[in-house]
């Protein structure tokens, strides 16, 4: 399980003073990027050297409670499964341990022309460290 802390800025909120719904997707994207980085995967090098990227294929999201300006939040990323070309994650946005947003996210590995590609063995080995 990976944790990434962030704060809600004024620019993240809507006219009601709560986090605009689409910004939760940005928050979990940051959490995923830091999760992969902390596992030792250099996504810039993966694209430059092997022409591979990870892309979101599916998101199933539940908005449970609103976050507000200046809230301290934590994005929790849990790896559920890894296959040859796919990664399945559960991500939560928490405030003081309370779940505000929960998403099931499916990532796929894509080649340069957007076709599905297998996750390279060395990268897959690093990702497998995150499985429970």
UniProtKB/TrEMBL annotation:
Keyword Hydrolase (UniProt): yes
Entries under InterPro entries matching the protein: 4-hydroxybenzoyl-CoA_TE (IPR050563), HotDog_dom_sf (IPR029069), Tol-Pal_acyl-CoA_thioesterase (IPR014166), YbgC/YbaW (IPR006684)
Keyword Hydrolase annotated: yes
Pfam families in the record: 4HBT_2
Keywords assigned: Hydrolase
Family, similarity comment: Belongs to the 4-hydroxybenzoyl-CoA thioesterase family.
Name of the protein described by the UniProt record: Tol-pal system-associated acyl-CoA thioesterase
Gene: ybgC
């Amino acid at each position: 399980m990976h944790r990434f802390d962030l704060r809600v800025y004024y620019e993240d909120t809507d006219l009601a003073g709560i986090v605009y719904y689409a910004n939760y997707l940005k928050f979990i994207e940051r959490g995923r990027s830091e999760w992969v980085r902390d596992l030792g995967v250099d996504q810039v090098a993966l694209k430059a050297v092997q022409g591979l990227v990870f892309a979101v294929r599916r998101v199933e999201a539940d908005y449970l409670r609103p976050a507000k300006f200046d809230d301290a939040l934590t994005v929790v990323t849990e790896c559920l499964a890894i296959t040859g070309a796919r990664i399945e994650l559960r991500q939560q946005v928490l405030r003081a341990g309370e779940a505000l947003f929960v998403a099931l996210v499916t990532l796929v590995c894509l080649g340069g022309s957007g076709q599905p590609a297998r996750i390279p063995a060395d990268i897959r080995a690093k990702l497998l460290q995150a499985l429970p």
